[in-house]
Amino acid sequence: MRDRADFERYVEQRSARLLRTAYLLCRDWGTAEDLLQTALAKAWFAWRRVGENPDPYVYRILANTHATWWRRRWKGEVPTETLPEEAGRDPAADLGARDEVRSVLAALPARQRAVLVLRYFADLPDAEIAEILGCSVATVRSQAARALAKLRVDPAARAALTSELR
Question: Which residues contact 156 (CB under 8 A, 6 or more apart)?
Answer without folding.
Answer: 100, 104
